[in-house]
Amino acid sequence: MAVNFKQLCNKCKKNYVVTNYKSTYVICYDCQKEDLKKEIKDPKMKKLFDLPEEWYKESSFLRSVKLYYLKFGTITEKQLEYFKKAVDKMKEKS
Prior knowledge:
By secondary structure, the chain is mainly α. The protein is 53% helix and 9% strand.
């Protein structure tokens, strides 16, 4: 199990982000917020990414998958599978 710790955002240098040794470039939610608000046209994906804002604030993984989709227009089956698992874990926590 990886040890988590807080590190300053590499972009704004103001906010702390919970991370671990595997993360090389850490970005806070506030720095990624504008990119996450781009429109998704595919209704299936729009429904998939329609999650509470708090979940995106808490999980850099959820943000990274959504940003990947917005940049490339698709995600892999593995990304989809793990995204759904992460969403299920967030639902259990709520």
